[in-house]
Structures are given as structure tokens and as C-alpha cells.
Amino acid sequence: MSLNINASHQTEARFAAAAQKIGVDTSALFEKMIMDYLPRIESDLANASSASDHFYFKASTEQFQNALAQLSSMNEDLPTLSDEAFDRGNIYEDRS
After folding, report:
1. Measured between alpha carbons, how far is residue 87 from residues 30, 49, 63, 78, 82 in Å?
2. What is the pLDDT of residue 12?
3. Could you count the other beta carbons within 10 Å of the beta carbon of residue 91?
4. DSSP annotation of 76
5. Is the pTM of this model over 0.70?
6. How far apart are CA 16 and CA 22, in angstroms?
7. What does the DSSP assignment read for 70-95?
8. Cα(56)–Cα(53) distance, rounded to whole angstroms?
9. Kindly report the CA angle at 68 between 63 and 73, in degrees rounded to 5?
10. Distance (Å, rounded) from C-alpha 25 to C-alpha 16?
11. What are the helix and strand counts (H, E) for the chain?
């Protein structure tokens, strides 16, 4: 398999220096990095649900509206704030 990677000159230099430091060519270092991290990536992908599995995409309009209503009902007992609570001076005490 052959891959082309677009990297900055700085990244390419750092990668070449790292390969030289451990005594391998850049291809061998790249393959080692892939093989070291591939199991973690595969595990992360296996455990992650895809975006299309999210409730937002699967719920009917009625289910979504019911969920929003449940969320909003959790806030019914919160106190009502006065208009002056939102004045800049009251939000940022050090500014007026």
C-alpha cells in the first residue's frame, strides 16, 4: 500500500529526525506508529455510536417535542429574574 501525506516542512523534518534517531527510515516509523495506534483507534470506533444513531436523527417530531417539553418542565421551579439582573453592571461587577 502506498500513501501520500501532505505535511508541513517542519513536520516532515521532525518526522525524519525521529526516524533517524531510532535508526529506521520514515516508512518504517510511520508503519510502527500506525500499528501502535491502530488497536486504540479501532476500539474507539467500535465503541462510538455514529451521529446517525443519535436521538435527534431517530426521533419522530412528536418524540422530539416531548423530549423538549420534559427538559423545559425541569426548569419550572426556577425563580424569575428581574430585568436589572441582566444589566451589564450586575453581570460584570467590575464594569458598568
Report:
1. 56, 43, 37, 20, 10
2. 92
3. 9
4. T
5. no
6. 10
7. HHHHTTTTSPPPPGGGGSHHHHSTT-
8. 8
9. 125
10. 8
11. 5, 0
**49 phi and psi angles, rounded to 5 deg:** -90, 145
Q: Residue with C-alpha cell 426556577?
A: 78
CA distance 75 to 88: 24
Assigned C-alpha cell, 28: 518504517
Quote the CA–CA distance of 60 and 72 in Å, as a whole number.
Answer: 18
Task: Find out whether 29 and 22 touch, Cβ atoms under 8 Å.
Answer: yes
Which grid coordinates are listed for 17?
A: 529526525
In one-letter notation, the amino acid at residue 53 is D
Domain ranges in the chain? 7-48, 52-96
Higher per-residue pLDDT: 47 or 12: 12
* pLDDT, greater one: 52 or 11: 11
Distance CA 82, CA 90 (A): 11
